[in-house]
């Protein structure tokens, strides 16, 4: 145990707060190695928070532009006063499972707030929470963009915002993580914050090798990403996770640390099939009426879930609905009028002689018929089955990756060894949220995973059977 000096002032005790892990590797699935938790404050004074740490929570979300989190501190030495900490500092954190530099998260964040400062009952200590986020989020709040992008793809615009207006460092930017988009646009960014500008143009973006408009901009442990959901779906699974209670034996299972790391400790199904929500949101079917005031015409574009699936990429091979028809003879994906949308369009202007005759008078096609009718459905479908998994801490799990989840059947008649898997809730999932939680005794990870499809199809319905026809018609027979 050694004393840590900060600007010649004793502020804490520097202990190895890693759990039972050594250079030879981890001994328990929840072991970890907290390498650094250092605050840069004042006149380049660094403070090691590890001796005061109660809990570190690090959070990624595929629908968020920035990584964020919070640190709960128990302070018995008044470091807030000594360091002049007030919520405008930087912090470097690095943690992993062992000494392997490739299996860790190592990032610099901006502290933006210190909250919940209170005296601990019965002890001469204070507890408070340090809130942090990526520095780019703070920069995005400080500046705005007013710029015309003429003849640029959406991916080019995203790159320009990241490199010119946010100056994202090399360790957070990899051009391979910015997926190429199709189409050339003329877009004016009207005095928006950088992240607001990216989110605005993302609505129009179509991946060059996919259909629809399902592009997302997010940050994970590897940096910034601009990717299509369908492209993410095609990634090889990071690993197969199993929910295997300890009283259930499984074939070829040997009790080693690797098995324990990839065993699901608990799970919760957050979203599942919802007919009303699927209809009202246009997930399975919707209708778009686009009006062209210049050419004085209109176009009707219908979205049909099953037709979309024929061309799109998915996580698993089967759809999330069956073929049950209502009393009017229509399935869920055959009633586009249930969700009606209206928008203006400029489709086809470049082919009209009297418009293209005047240089600069043609606005690039924004493909409203594609992104307006499909984007909301694609996002909704991607989250149609959503689950929360509790696992042993693993820094390699990031948003945008895929996993396999083997959920054992709850059927008591399933006596096979190994037990059969749940045919609908098992399968390949996309990781959309990750929370790493480090406490003194253990490191846990909570992940949210989603899927748009099933490994096994729901049973098909014989809509012509008398009992089905009578039931659907509301006749009790």
Strand content: 35-45%
**What is the straight-line distance between the termini?**
80 Å
Biggest sheet record: 13 strands, mixed
Count of discrete alpha- or pi-helical segments spanning 4 or more residues: 11
The CATH topology assignment of the largest domain is Thrombin, subunit H
Care to describe what's here?
- The protein has 477 residues and is an alpha+beta fold.
- It folds into four domains: 2-133, Thrombin, subunit H (Beta Barrel), CATH 2.40.10; 143-224; 235-272 and 384-451, Bacteriophage T4, Gp27, baseplate hub, domain 3 (Elongation Factor Tu (Ef-tu), domain 3), CATH 2.40.30.150; 275-381, no CATH class.
- It is built from eleven helices and 24 strands.
- The chain has helices at 79-83, 135-142, 154-165, 194-202, 229-233, 257-261, 275-280, 305-311, 353-356, 368-382, 466-472; strands at residues 2-6, 9-14, 21-22, 25-26, 33-41, 45-48, 53-61, 68-75, 90-96, 104-119, 126-133, 145-152, 185-192, 215-220, 223-228, 240-243, 266-271, 285-292, 297-304, 340-344, 385-392, 402-407, 427-439, 443-451.
- Strands 5, 6, 7, 8, 9, 10, 11, 16, 17, 21, 22, 23 and 24 form a 13-stranded mixed β-sheet that branches. A three-stranded mixed β-sheet has the order 19-18-20.
- A hairpin with a 2-residue loop joins β1 and β2 (9-14).
- α3 (154-165) packs antiparallel against α4 (194-202).
- It is flat and about 75 Å long.
- It starts with a strand and ends in a 5-residue tail after the last helix.
- Mean pLDDT is 87; it is low at 1-24 and 247-254.
């Amino acid at each position: 145990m050694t004393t840590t000096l900060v600007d010649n002032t004793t502020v804490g005790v520097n202990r190895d707060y890693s759990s039972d892990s050594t250079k030879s590797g981890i001994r328990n699935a929840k072991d970890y190695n907290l390498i650094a938790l250092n605050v840069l404050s004042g006149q380049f004074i660094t403070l090691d928070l590890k001796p005061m740490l109660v809990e570190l929570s690090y959070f990624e979300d595929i629908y968020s532009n920035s990584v964020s989190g919070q640190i709960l501190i128990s302070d018995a030495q008044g470091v807030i006063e000594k360091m002049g900490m007030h919520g405008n500092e930087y912090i470097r954190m690095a943690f992993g499972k062992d000494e392997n530099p490739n299996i860790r998260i190592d990032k610099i964040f901006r502290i933006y707030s210190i909250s919940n400062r209170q005296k601990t009952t019965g002890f001469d200590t204070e507890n408070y929470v340090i809130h942090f986020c990526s520095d780019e989020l703070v920069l995005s709040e400080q500046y705005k963009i007013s710029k015309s992008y003429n003849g640029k793809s959406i991916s080019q615009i995203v790159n320009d915002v990241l490199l010119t207006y946010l100056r994202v460092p090399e360790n957070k930017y990899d051009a391979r993580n910015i997926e190429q988009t199709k189409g050339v646009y003329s877009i004016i960014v009207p005095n928006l914050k950088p992240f607001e500008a990216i989110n605005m143009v993302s609505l129009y973006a179509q991946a060059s090798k996919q259909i629809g408009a399902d592009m997302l901009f997010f940050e994970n442990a590897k940096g910034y990403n601009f990717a299509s959901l369908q492209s993410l779906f095609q990634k090889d699974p990071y690993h197969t996770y199993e929910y295997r209670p300890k009283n259930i034996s499984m074939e070829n299972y040997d009790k080693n640390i690797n098995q324990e790391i990839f065993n699901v400790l608990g799970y919760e199904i957050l979203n599942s099939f919802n007919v009303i929500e699927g209809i009202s949101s246009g997930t399975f079917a919707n209708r778009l009426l686009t009006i062209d005031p210049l050419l004085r015409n209109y176009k009707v574009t219908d979205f049909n879930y099953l037709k979309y699936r024929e061309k799109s990429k998915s996580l698993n091979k089967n759809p999330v609905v069956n073929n049950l028809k209502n009393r009017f003879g229509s399935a869920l994906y055959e009633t586009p009028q249930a969700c009606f949308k209206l928008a203006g369009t400029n489709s086809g202007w470049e082919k009209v002689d009297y418009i293209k005759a005047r240089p600069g008078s043609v606005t690039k096609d924004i493909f409203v018929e594609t992104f307006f009718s499909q984007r909301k459905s694609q996002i909704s479908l991607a989250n149609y089955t959503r689950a929360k998994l509790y696992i042993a801490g693993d820094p390699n799990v990031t948003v945008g990756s895929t996993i396999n989840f083997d959920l054992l059947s709850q059927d008591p008649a399933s006596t096979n060894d190994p037990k059969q898997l749940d045919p609908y809730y098992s399968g390949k999932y996309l990781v959309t949220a990750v929370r790493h939680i480090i406490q003194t005794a253990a490191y846990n990870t909570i992940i949210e995973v989603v899927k748009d499809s099933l490994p096994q199809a729901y049973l098909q319905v014989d809509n012509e059977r008398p009992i089905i026809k009578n039931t659907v018609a509301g006749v009790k027979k």
